[in-house]
């Protein structure tokens, strides 16, 4: 099973990403060096915090990577636009719901409205 851990990396002002593959009794950490990929074996349950890092990125680099991954896998990189669209649609539904409640509420209906509804 592949597992990815992301942690703050204060020395760089960004994040540290660790990609590991677990199997019974062992764990392998992906190491990338000079464009070469190597799965380095480490104990499955190390006694201390595991400092092995697959890649360290500054925040700007990490955000650019996140945008590219979202665009690749979900087709939309700008989640702010998606959220804005969702909130706009939610507002429209709220207004529609209020209007329906106003019409259906017996306290807001007049005898004339009842005649039109029947």
Radius of gyration of CA atoms, rounded to a whole number: 27 Å
Task: List the quaternary state of the chains.
Answer: single chain
Q: Biggest sheet, in brief?
A: 5 strands, antiparallel
**SSE order, as H and E?**
EEEEEHHH
Q: Would you report the number of β strands?
A: 5
Task: Give the key terms.
118 residues; 5 strands
Summarize the structure.
This protein has 118 residues and is α+β, with helices and mostly antiparallel strands.
Overview of the structural elements:
- This protein has 3 helices and 5 strands; from the N terminus they run βββββααα.
- Strands 1, 2, 3, 4 and 5 form a 5-stranded antiparallel beta sheet that branches.
- Helices cover 42% and strands 32% of the residues.
- The chain is elongated, with a radius of gyration of 27 Å.
- It folds into 2 domains: 75 residues, no CATH class; 36 residues.
- The model has no long low-confidence stretch (mean pLDDT 81).
- With 118 residues, the chain is of the alpha+beta class.
């Amino acid at each position: 099973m592949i597992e990815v851990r992301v942690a703050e990396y204060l020395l760089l002002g960004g994040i540290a990403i660790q990609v590991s593959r677990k199997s019974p009794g062992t764990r392998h950490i992906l190491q990338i060096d000079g464009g070469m990929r190597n799965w380095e074996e480490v104990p499955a349950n190390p006694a201390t915090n595991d400092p092995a890092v697959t890649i360290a990125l500054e925040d700007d680099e990490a955000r650019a990577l996140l945008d590219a991954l979202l665009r690749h896998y979900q087709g939309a990189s700008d989640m702010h636009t998606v959220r804005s669209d969702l909130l706009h649609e939610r507002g429209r539904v709220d207004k529609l719901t209020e209007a329906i409640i106003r019409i259906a509420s017996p306290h807001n209906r007049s005898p004339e409205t009842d005649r039109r509804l029947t």
